[in-house]
Design goal:
mainly alpha, about 0% strand, about 180 residues
């Protein structure tokens, strides 16, 4: 069970690193928060911590890890990172910068409008789509929305963890191998 301590620590560090990046974006240029590449960077950071945490847990188990153990280790990193990250983001949105959710909603809607106009969407269809998107975004920056997003993200990380487990598993050599 000691590998759960290792993987939990990697999950905590991952959440803190992603939160620090979020705060830096906020302080440097708030527009960075709605750029696609900031989300991609957060995904890359998390995937790197999944690999590193799983390898560290495997090493804590004397170098052997079955596929199931590797998957559970990776999922532990993901779970801790997702839900601690959501809690830290709630802290940002509720305490540190309570004006940020409404700003992000406006910026996201504007960026979405520009993208749809770039695709040549008709004015009527654009208006209808923007109304639907605005309605869907109402809870996106709330505690409930962030928690649901973290839970939904776990489905994606479960698939990524399958890949991590396949790459990082290592069975002890047997005389028949």
């Amino acid at each position: 069970m000691s590998h759960f301590n290792v993987t939990s620590l990697y999950g905590v560090v991952c959440a803190v690193v992603n939160f620090v990046l979020l705060v830096v974006y906020y302080l440097v240029n708030i527009n960075l928060l709605v750029e696609w590449y900031t989300s991609v960077l957060a995904l890359i950071v998390t995937a790197a911590f999944l690999f590193a945490g799983t390898v560290a847990a495997r090493n804590a188990q004397e170098g052997s890890f079955s596929f199931g153990q590797a998957w559970m280790a990776s999922m532990t990193v993901a779970f801790v990172a997702q839900f601690l990250g959501a809690a830290l983001t709630v802290l940002l949105y509720e305490i540190i910068a309570p004006e940020l959710p409404s700003l992000l909603e406006q910026m996201t809607l504007e960026k979405t409008r520009e993208m749809m106009e770039g695709f040549g969407m008709s004015a009527d269809l654009l208006k209808m789509q923007m109304r639907e998107i605005k309605e869907a975004m109402k809870e996106a920056y709330t505690v409930k929305g962030l928690t649901l997003n973290a839970a939904g993200g776990m489905l994606m990380w479960a698939i990524v963890s399958l890949i991590v487990a396949a790459v990082t598993r290592r069975n002890l050599n047997s005389e028949f191998a």
